[in-house]
Design a protein that fits this description.
single chain; 266 residues; alpha+beta; Aminopeptidase
Length: 266
């Protein structure tokens, strides 16, 4: 059995990460230890590294190869999903219910094989959301949260962390519309981290590690647009025809009020 020397991160949040391109671990484990300080997380994602571990275990840091990615604007939409989009039964929003989305993702994972969204990771991403780096995309039906996704935006790269649905196709709608929005904003990639068959049906691609890091370097060299995306979706729907689907799926009307500090209606 092969043994791999995996470096341990220092306690200082500014301690360096190993170069993921030099990792010999077959599944892309590059380091362990450290903490989930927001600045450490931002540096990790800029290097193509993300935390993935179980509650009670040391923090494990990964950069798998090949890398599963999606190109903004190039999702494969089935005829059934296109029909669902046209039916107009959903409303959409961004950054309106970040904590609810991450909790929905954790519940979905727990029902399957246990969640990797630990309380510490949840707290770290809520802090990143408060700093304007982490964002959510929500899909609503009958006034209730039907599904969504969340992730981290750095430069022109969006790092998708997880998605969930409580109604059929809700997470797919969130992903498709997020990809269309990212295209209109000039994003280069949506990082999906690890391939799975559900993503393959929506058009996920695999990039070798060197190519992924090359695109990552270019994409994250652009200045971050920091702050809530609550009204960004609304502006996109008004000013670009790439958002024609929003003619059928309206933006949740309380999104702007929430941005202005007013509570959403009950």
């Amino acid at each position: 059995m092969n043994r791999y020397m995996i470096p341990r991160l220092g306690s200082d949040p500014d301690s360096p990460f190993p170069d993921p391109g030099l990792s010999e671990h077959p599944e892309g484990l590059v380091a362990w230890g450290g903490d989930l300080d927001p600045q450490r997380l931002l540096r990790a994602y800029r290097a193509g590294i993300f935390p993935w571990y179980s509650d009670g275990s040391p923090i494990l840091w990964w950069s798998p190869e090949p890398r599963a990615v999606m190109v903004p604007g190039q999702a494969d939409v089935s005829r059934r999903l296109a029909r669902t989009l046209r039916q107009g039964r959903f409303c959409v929003s961004m950054d309106l219910a970040f904590a609810d989305v991450i909790d929905g993702c954790a519940e979905a994972r727990a029902d399957d094989e246990g969640t990797w969204i630990t309380p510490a990771l949840r707290s770290a991403f809520i802090e990143l959301h408060g700093q304007g780096h982490a964002h959510s995309f929500e899909v609503w039906m009958d006034g209730e949260l039907a599904g969504g996704l969340y992730g981290l935006a750095l430069g022109k790269i969006f790092f998708a962390e997880s998605k969930f649905h409580r109604r059929r196709d809700a997470s797919k709608i969130a992903l498709v519309l997020m990809l269309r929005a990212l295209k209109s904003w000039g994003f280069l990639l949506l990082d999906c981290q690890i391939w799975n068959p559900h993503l393959e049906r929506l058009g996920v691609r695999l990039l070798d590690g060197a190519r992924f890091r090359q695109v990552l370097t270019v994409g994250t060299s652009t200045a971050d647009v920091v702050g809530p995306w609550t009204t960004r979706l609304e502006d996109w729907g008004k000013h670009t025809r790439a958002a024609r689907v929003l003619d059928e799926i309206p933006i949740r009307p309380d999104a702007t009020r929430q941005q202005q500090g007013e509570p959403p209606p009950a």
